[in-house]
Amino acid sequence: MARPVRHTGINGARLRYLRRKEQWSQSDLGDKLGVHRATLARWETGEAEPPYEVVEQMAELFGVAPGFLFEVAPIPDYEGENPDGVILDPVLQRVPLRKLQKYTQPALEVLGYSLKQLVAKLPKLSSQRIQELLQGKKPTAYEIQYLRYNLGPEFHPTSSYKKRLLGSSAEAATVDVALHSRIARLEESIESMRTFQMRILERVGQIHDLLSAGRI
After folding, report:
1. Handedness of CA 160, 166, 168, 173 (dihedral sign)
2. Higher pLDDT, 79 or 61
3. In this structure, is residue 84 part of a structural domain?
4. In the chain, which end has fewer C-beta atoms inside a 10 angstrom radius, N or C?
C-alpha cells in the first residue's frame, strides 16, 4: 500500500521572498537543500509541495520559524512604517523588546561590518544614526526589524547568539571585556618573549666577543 503524501501547504510566495532576500538563485538554494532547481521552482509556483522535513531545513537556513512559510497573510512590510512600534518578525517576536534593544549593538559588532558597509546596507538609516547604534544607543522596534530585514538572519540580537558565535560561556555583556583582557595578556606575553629574546642575543654577543678576544 502506498504511503500517503503529507501535504505541507507551503506558501510559495514566501519561499521566493526569503530566497530573494538572501540573494540566492533557485540553483543556490537547491544546492543547499539537495534538490534540483526545477523542483524548487515548482515549490515556489505552488505546482508541488516539499516534504515537511525540507520545510524545517529551509526555515533553519532562512532563520525563521517553519510556520512563517505556511502563512497566507501578506508578508510584513519591514521596510514600511510601523506606527505601532511592534515587532513583526516571527523570529524576533520570541525575544523581549528590551533584550533586543540591549543586544543590538553587540550583534552589530559580531557581524564585523565597517560603518561604510553598514551605511550601504541600511539606506534608510543615516550615517549618524548607525554610528549611534554602534555606540549602544537604544534602537526602536522598527529599527531592529529594519536591521534584521537588511542584514539577514546573521543579525540576531540575543545574548545566547553572541555567546555561541564567540564560543564563550560568559555573559554577553562581559564578553567584550574578557576579549580585551585576553588580548592585553597576549600582548604582555609577546613583549616578555621579545625582552627574553633580546637578552639571549645580548648574551650571545658577549660570548662571541670573549671568544674573539681569546678570553674563553
Report:
1. negative
2. 61
3. no
4. N
Question: Which residues lie below 8 Å from residue 176, measured CB to CB, with a gap of 6+?
Answer: 106, 109
Residue with cell 526555515: 59
**41: CB partners within 8 A, 6+ apart:** 26
Asked if residue 107 and residue 153 are part of one domain, the reply reads yes
DSSP assignment of 78-92 equals TTS--TT-----TTG
Mean pLDDT of 104-133: 89
Residue 141 cell numbers, joined: 522596534
Other CB atoms within 10 A of residue 16 CB: 17
**pLDDT(3) > 50:** no
Task: Flag whether 149 is in a domain.
Answer: yes
Contact call for residues 179 and 170 (beta carbons, < 8 A)? no
Distance CA 63, CA 177 (A): 29
Position 149 scores a pLDDT of 79
At residue 180, the pLDDT reads 56
Of 94, 171, 105, nearest in space to 134 by CA:
105
As a whole number of angstroms, the distance between CA 116 and CA 114 comes to: 5
- Residue 159 half-sphere exposure, CB side, CA atoms within 13 Å? 11
Domains: count for the chain: 3
Q: Which three cell numbers stand for residue 74?
A: 501578506
Structural domain for 29, as ranges: 12-69
